[in-house]
Predict the structure.
Amino acid sequence: MENIRYFDHAATTKTKEEVLKEMIPYFTLNYGNASSIYTIGRKSKKAVEEAREKVAKAINATSKEIYFTSCGSESDNLAIKGVAYANREKGNHIITTKIEHPAVLHTCQHLAREGFEITYLNVDNEGLISLQELEEAITNKTILISIMFANNEIGTIQPIKEIGQIAKKHNIYFHTDAVQAVGNVRIDVRDLNIDLLSMSAHKFYGPKGVGALYARTDVKFDKIQDGGHQERNKRAGTENVAGIVGIGKAIELVYKNFDEYNNKLLNLRDYYIKQVEEKIPYVKLNGHRTKRLPGNANISFKFVDGEALLLNLDAKGICASTGSACTSGSLDPSHVLLAIGLPHDVAQGSLRITFGEDNTKEDVDFLVDTLVNVVEKLRDSSQEYKEFASK
Ligand SMILES: *Cc1c(COP(=O)(O)O)cnc(C)c1O
């Protein structure tokens, strides 16, 4: 299709030209193993360490607190399992939320099968946790709090600083899955009292297949993959040098251009929400209206099936998402939308639009015009809508 309009930046983003350009020499000329001592190996090692510094600088960490991984999911696994196994003698209780990404939820479920106790905090109708419920959940067995920075489906941003303060007060490690937040929120791990943080390059215009975990210097965590001594013995496996160069460049660029980029997303988002709310009846914005990612708009269209909506949009070259990309293919409504209290049918009719740097106001106009038509068409063929409308 020649004219693609891409509104699924929470699923992945396009690798920037500038990022790719920096990466290519590490596939071709400088292909040395970063552990080898001859010149092209040392050059690879140097490139890895420069990237580590860029990642550290972007979140106010130090470079020895950054560990490169293969993706956001691996970072979440390493943080949560790593802390759980290394601190078992202190306790077996972990606190997380009901709206985490599967990389956190399924990791916690895995640990539960091994005897760990997991508390899944509720969220309110806008997707926010209760700080009071968090404090009340803490026991003398609690070793880790893992709460996502910003939600990938509804965009809600949690009170991270307050959570960090609670964790610190009780001497419990605080991990945050910041895969959606990096690039869209300014993050200072020291100011926010974050002990561990996960990120993934492909969510901020870097390549797929590379992530990073920040772990504060004195956090005790085990490796979860055995092998060589790479990443200061925390993550075995030959370094993905080109990918690591890519994450370093991508994070540098996204924060260099932070205000312009995020203001753009915010304007597109608010314009889109306003247009939809004005032009289409029976819609509901999911997530918090202001405490949300600048590029995220998740809206339920009542009396409409999300899958049908996506297929109709796809026919017009529009890429978007319903529920979460990771669960599409299953017919269950998203666990996040159920956790914020949506009835099944309203959850099924949700559309997640996530904006990116190439989107324009014209794209939004095209999207809204298409939605007006498609939603009307789908409702006209809905028995439920006919019954509702005839009342
Ligand atoms: C995308 C995403 C992940 C997984 O990252 P991968 O690099 O795709 O493994 C984890 N958490 C959140 C919140 C995400 O949006």
